[in-house]
Fold:
Amino acid sequence: MDGWRSWFCGKLSSWGPPLTPDQLIALSILSPAVGALAIALIGRNNDAGYNPRDIVTVIATLITFGFVVKLAGPVVAGDRPELSLFEVLPGLAIAFKIEPLGMLFALVASGLWIPTSIYSFGYMRGHHERHQTRFFVCFAIAISAALGIAFARNLLTLFLFYELLTFSTYPLVTHAGSGKAVKAGRSYLGILIFTSVSFLLLAIVWTWQTTGTLEFRPGGIVSGHFESSRAILLLALFVFGTGKAALMPFHRWLPAAMVAPTPVSALLHAVAVVKAGVFTVLKIIVYVFGIEFLTDGNYALWLCYVAGFTLIAASLVALTKDNLKARLAYSTISQLSYIVLGAALATKTSIVGGGMHIVMHAAGKITLFFCAGAIMVASHKTEISDMKGIGRQMPFTMFAFFIASLSIIGLPPLGGAWSKWYLILGALDAQQFLMVGVLIVSSLLNIAYLLPIVVNAFFFPTTEVEIGGGIKEAPIACVASLLVTAFSCLILFLYPDFFLNLAQMIGEF
Amino acid sequence: MMEQLPALQVVLPLFSALLCLLIRNKTASRLFAVAVSWGCLAIALILLRTVQETGIISYHFGGWFPPLGIEYRIDLLNAYVLIIVAMISAVVLPFGVGHWGLSIPEGREYLFFCAFLLCISGLLGITITGDAFNVFVFLEITSLSSYALIAMGRNRRALRAAFTYLVMGTVGGTFILIGIGMMYLETGTLNMVDIANRLPLAYGSRTVLVAFAFLTVGVGIKLAVFPLHHWLPNAYSYAPATVSAFLAATATKVSYYVLVRVIFTLFGAAYIFETLRFHVLLIPLSLLAMFIGSTVAIYQTNIKRLLAYSSISQIGYMTLGLSFASINGLTGGLVHLFNHALMKGGLFLVLASVMHSIASNEIDDMRGLGRKMPFTMAAFVLGGLSLIGVPGTVGFISKWYLVVAALEKGWYPIAVLILLSSFLAVIYIWRVVEIFFFREPAAEKSIKEAPLSMLIPTWILIGGTLFFGLQTEWTAGVAGSVANFLLGGLP
Structure:
């Protein structure tokens, strides 16, 4: 096994042109941004037929992923590539340093950008969306910001890209330009900016003022400077300040953001943006507070309960939603809390579970959103109650939906099983038996809100009289992408080693 | 030549203003004014460099030694403010070269440029001089020329706005004069260095106290400190577009400079903050300004008024920074001078372009303008983000220093309030951004993107808000050394 791994790592880093790691960091963050520029320059006003910007988009996604993968080799091998740009304020630099958790997030975000782009071509055309050039430009900038968050070496850099991500996704949320979209955009921006400026920034400045540093360090930086109630307050400011983690009561922006075109919901509001949130929480708990500091003082116990509550409550709300995207949105809120819970339990195993869940949930949820979008394009249906018997029309889509649902629920042989496994182990390690119960109950709730959709689709007759009948799937670009991501759930169960290895290294800076 | 630069800094625009009257041709006088403003910027840059290299410059006007003669005394603080004034005028004057009309009254162009140059020279004069009475003289030059500039606005209400400003400004100017007189009474000198040396002997006297009160209220009116801000919204909204940009970016900044000078150089921070406990008054007023200014801004229907109220709240940030009387706080206040000049200058220039295109600054008339004038309105969004204080923009840098200063004093509620007030900025900026980008345009009028001669100056300032949001060595770095220099006496 070890021989295989070193061969694999060697392969990862040696392919392609010889570049130093610091160049690679710069290139991987820059290439989506350059891609955005190229799309803006090349994109024509033609939103229906062939458009050269599509090719540019695909090239940008591939190149970006290539750079990130090339960086993965050294990181798995134990290197921590870094790049310092310049000092914004004395002692506060814009700087990047890649550690395993960041690598994991970067791989997920840049990797899933590829199928999402291809999916978008089919979806945006099939749905007759306008302003597609703006859409692809903002999308690319958002990916650039997500990579900046993933690679940030200190809290200032992370915060800079965190806000860039918020603002670059705003035009995507309000893409339709309708009154409803503008209103949703208002709560999107309102909640994310309110939390980040009032809480997160305050926490960052407070940390800086007290400890004199904002660097991420193994073992954290706050121990010795904060204690008891002040430590709890700081943690609360950080966690609630990261509005993108959608912890209740600051979760309303996520369902609101569902007015965005489905590819946005899929990649950004199931993967990049929300994962940037939980990634930030994980990163702060591991590298700013330090696991030992938290467990010694028992400072994160309250967070377990908040996360546990969000987890159950969001699942219950999901049960009541008839709109498919809304149901998936609440499911996302609930699943994000798994990761926050993993962080809050603050054991080695629960952190592994949290890290793994970033990957596993991403693969599963993006597939579910792809399916929701495909249904919308092919049959213009958005409500679950209208989708009876749709499995006969769209067998591939609904099969992928089934696979991804099982992965979200956490059943083998699908990827989601691993992350739940480690999360439950972590809860046992921390002797939080209540949380073990919460995780199990939530899995049951997952079954309750996901599987009926599949059952409805395959085992009930259609409510309407279909003209012609037969198979009527979404455009091939959509179906191909969602099959690939569904398949990846299976692959992730069979070969979790790579990500597991990365997740187990979290904490080694 | 080089040693005469401090005099030239003021004399050049002063005499050029008169030359404008002789030129009379509108294009020639405009180009002449632009050239003069660039010359001023060059002088200011050289002066800053000289101060950084060789220390304080003391220039004796006409060779008369102080206290008999007038001394121009340039340290880091006023070199820094000179740059702000010169930079903004060098960007605002060329704005819209080749286009006439809406922002400049027809037939009176040369008068406009004459008043403009007088205003520049007054502002530079206030900043550069080391003589208290001289401050008053230049203050009057500035005020008189800016009344004239505001009154040139197209709307008839500009006259009323100018008149209100005239009354308020005269009250302010008189208060300052009384304050200076009383200081002269106590110390027998008008030279600032001498006053600073002699005042400590008279700290107990009531005259000094009253002098300080008159000075603060007088400067407070000019600075539009809450609740003395009444004149500002009308003056900014009805002035010609470029005048609003220029005054918003410089006039209040220079008044702030005078306040800093009075507190930190003349009276001494120890006396003001430890004996008089001035911050007990100034902090609540600053916080009120921040919240009331922003809240009122939310409800405006005219975009220029909106920005004017936003200015009142931003002035609150500056005075708040000053009242911390700490290195970080003062750095935050001073760096916000520069930063706010950039963003407000840029934003008002955007409105000048809009005025040029649609002849209105009502928010309702600007519906859907984001599609018609994408580059102009993109500049508005970026300037707005800077007002909010998004990281990567200059607004973030100012806010950072202020919050650090609040936390380091242990004033946690103030830190929270600073951050909450930036959320109000999100509301008033985003409300109009939604209107600019998502509403359908009012009519099928052919609205075109602003010409390059307007876009370039706008984007220089807006680009500056981004550049100096990441590169802070020249802004926060200088402001930091100024704060160190001013607080040398305090621990």
Notes: Residues 2-486 of chain B form one domain. Residues 327-358 of chain B form the longest helix (32 residues). Strands of chain B lie at 57-60, 71-74. The longest strand of chain B covers residues 57-60.
